[in-house]
Write a structure and sequence with these properties.
seven-stranded mixed beta sheet; single chain; Rossmann fold; 10 helices; binds S-adenosylmethionine; alpha/beta; 2 domains; 293 residues
Length: 293
């Protein structure tokens, strides 16, 4: 039996009718494909973002940078000979640190204000990061160009995330790798609205309206988490897009490197017990994958 449901999606005051045929088929009727736009005007969430981060010492970002490199290096050696890119660069700390360490990492960022702020941030450390204005939903990153692409805390903000993922897949060389980190729907805590427990559990319309009330309507132009992902949903999407391998956070754990004894024990159990693995992945703070083309 084919179950049908009629749903109305309304984002940023724009409406789109979708006719949903189960299973796994979404046919959009009577609506053009909407994408995010590059906004040249000042957006309040971008202003807040820059204000909070512009004076952050880049050395505080080194552990996060090393963490990403650690995951990537489980699949290939990272050095200056590789072509790398980051999508959604924010303050530009990652391409800046990459350049400081002799790596070759370009940045693609939808916000012109953040591209400018990122260039100024890099200059404070004597580096000119290679940042470019671009929307991952519409930009062409080329085909078989990059060895590594990093998408750190960005895809929750990309309205048509599968389109963006396809662009990344196409841009990677065969055997190229993507680091992906984003929201995890059933996590108790959330980086999007930290004071509110279980924020990600809210339905999309609930989160959008709540954030519009708290942060203003222009949060829908940049800043909203359009998506709360799950490990299962992402794994399926990566497979459908064509990635040969998708390694999740538990697969990437190296318990011997975890300093906290309790967390180390949980990591060890999750690695050997499928039920514990499922529980950890369901409630973990973020979704993390390294995917191989
Ligand atoms: C939460 S910030 C993360 C920044 C950085 N990756 C980090 O880890 O600090 C998300 C960034 O992605 C950018 N972004 C959102 N949608 C985008 C899109 N469609 N294309 C490119 N960048 C996008 C935002 O402007 C913002 O700078």
């Amino acid at each position: 039996m084919v179950a049908c449901a009629f749903s109305i999606l309304s984002v940023s005051g724009r409406s789109c009718f979708a006719f949903r045929l189960y299973p796994n088929r979404l046919i959009e009727l009577g609506c053009s494909r909407l994408t995010m736009e590059i906004h040249h005007e000042e957006l309040s969430d971008v202003v807040r973002y820059i204000e909070r981060r512009k004076d952050e010492d880049i050395r505080l970002k080194e552990p996060q940078f090393d963490g990403i490199l650690f995951y990537l290096e489980q699949f290939r050696k990272i050095d200056g000979s590789l072509r790398m890119a980051e999508v959604g660069t924010g303050m530009g700390w990652l391409p800046t640190l990459a350049k400081m360490r002799g790596l070759n990492c370009k940045g693609i960022e939808i916000s012109p204000m953040l591209v400018q702020a990122g260039r100024e941030y890099g200059l404070r450390y004597g580096v000119e990061p290679d940042l470019e204005i671009g929307n991952i939903e519409t930009s062409d990153l080329g085909e078989n160009v990059y060895d590594v692409i990093i998408a750190n805390s960005v895809f929750e903000h990309v309205e048509h995330w599968q389109t963006g993922l396809r662009t990344i897949y196409r841009a990677l060389k065969p055997g190229g790798i993507m680091f992906f980190e984003s929201t995890n729907k059933w996590s108790i805590t959330s980086g999007e609205l930290p004071p509110m427990p279980c924020y990600g559990w809210l339905p999309n319309w609930g989160r959008y309206n709540l954030r519009k009330v708290i942060h203003g309507a222009d949060i829908m132009k940049n800043g909203i988490d359009f998506h709360q992902f799950t490990y299962g949903g992402l794994r399926k999407a990566f497979r459908e897009i064509g990635f040969r391998e998708a390694h999740d956070r538990v697969a990437l754990f190296r318990p011997e490197r975890i300093a906290n004894p309790k967390k180390r024990k949980i990591a060890q159990i999750a690695k050997s017990n499928p039920v514990a693995r499922k529980l950890v992945l369901t409630f973990f703070e973020v979704t993390t994958f390294v995917c191989v083309k």
